[in-house]
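Let us practice reading a record.
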Amino acid sequence: MTVTLGEGNTPLLQAPRLSERLGVELWLKWEGANPTGSFKDRGMSVAVTKAVEDGAHAVVCASTGNTAASCAAYAARAGLEAIIVVVGGGAASSKLVQVRAVGGRIVEVDGTFADAYAHAEELAAEDGHVLVNSTNPYRIEGQKTAAFEIVEQLGGLPDVLTLPYGGGGNTRAYARGFMEAAGALPRLHPVEASHRADTLASAIRIVDPIHRAEVEEALERSGGSVVTVDDVEIVRAWRALGHEEGLFCEPASAAGIAGLERGSAAQGERVVCVVTGHGLKDPAAVE
């Protein structure tokens, strides 16, 4: 049985006004169109499907919010218990509402995301429990499908891919997907917040990226680099996506645009910016 809520096949939208202003051919991969409102659904479908096949009765994750909402929804779909570990005050309340709405159990811990992840690992060690963070290889397998879609939608590789950088799993997934679909990589520019611990962009509020080594390998192969921006730049990019292209995303999802404002693409290059989550995920972040 495939555990699905109809994830994937999200739009690739032209961004004519931003393209003109930034001097590039810009496309927006709108992952907020996924069932729970973020890119996490792609990998969660595969991870939970595999958990069911293996006879699990519970799935566990640590989360800043989007993984939590996705895990809880797909667990409910599969008839499994969902145990969600979050840092107290670290996840947007609207994302936790999603968890509660589908019956997920929230466990709060003190500290950082690393502390939440360590506790999730302990819980997942119990018999019949499966960890569904992006360290679960099936998560990456699901998320790489977005790269397949981009190659099909564009008719080839973009010159540049830019996306938010929290834990790094999505950058790793795109790199794998592009290699499998096209045998080559666009130049990858994951964009992180300068103050990871307390950025208003809660979805990327991860101090120590779990996939840092894999991200660095992908950047070396693609000729890309990490771009670091501050919260003022993230908010400016968030407003630009809304005011200039009509796209309402959560602040973290605008990080890729903030990276472009920093010059991560050259004039005339074809750029895909991954917009990872819907604005209703974190409406209180920017007033």
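A brief commentary: The radius of gyration is 18 Å.
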